[in-house]
Amino acid sequence: MLSVSDGDTLKALCDEAALPQNLVTVRVASVDAPESNQPFGHRARQALTGLVLDKMARLECRGNPDRYGRSVCKVMVAPASCTREPCAKTLDAGLSMLTLGMAWWEPHFAGEQTPQERGQYEFAESEAKARHAGLWKDEEPVPPWNWRQEHPRPR
Fold first, then answer.
1. pLDDT at 86 over 60
2. Residues 26-35 pLDDT 10s
3. How confident is the model at residue 20 (pLDDT cuts 50, 70, 90)?
4. Is 81 part of a structural domain of the chain?
5. Which residues are designated catalytic?
């Protein structure tokens, strides 16, 4: 991964050749992190950066890009405990963001997940809430979809 834009968006190089056509913007599938100007937005970006930056990843992308042209992908990286390559890409960055309390699970995309993934994601979010982890420390965290409605981007 080359860079992290926010808690659910990153840029990846899909080939060793650093050519513009090999650079892809990726939206982490099935999660929605706080917007950059929203409470916990900066911390969510830091969390995703810690998980993926400068790591080789396996991207499991869905068929169509989102409305912003980003590839929507499950992002799999090697866990931090792996210090020597080659390492298996077994850490799901989206699931990790939920576990850390740095994102919401998007149940309206549940149909695009396997039943096992749905259960894991839902459980990770509910566990983070119960532990008051990350954004769940806030008494009334505002989901990003509500934040975006209340704070539209200038056009």
1. yes
2. 999 999 999 9
3. low
4. yes
5. 27, 35, 70
- Tell me the per-residue pLDDT of 88-119, one tens digit each, with 9 for 90 and over: 899 999 999 999 999 999 888 888 899 999 99
Supply the CATH number for residue 17's domain. Answer: 2.40.50.90
Q: CB neighbours (10 Å) of residue 95?
A: 23
What is the SS3 assignment for 43? helix
Question: Using CA atoms, how far apart are residues 24 and 111, in angstroms rounded to an integer?
Answer: 24
Token pair 């937005």 in the structure block, residue: 41
The DSSP output letter for 13 is E
| pLDDT of amino acid 109 | 82
Coil, strand or helix at 6: strand
Q: Residue 143's domain spans which residues? A: 3-150
What DSSP element (H or E) covers 112? none
Residue 19 lies in a domain: yes
The two beta strands, 31-32 and 3-6, are unpaired
Q: How far apart are the first and last CA of the chain?
A: 29
Q: What is the domain count for the chain?
A: 1
Please check whether residue 155 lies inside any domain of the structure: no
Q: Indicate whether this model's pTM tops 0.90.
A: yes
CA distance 35 to 67: 17
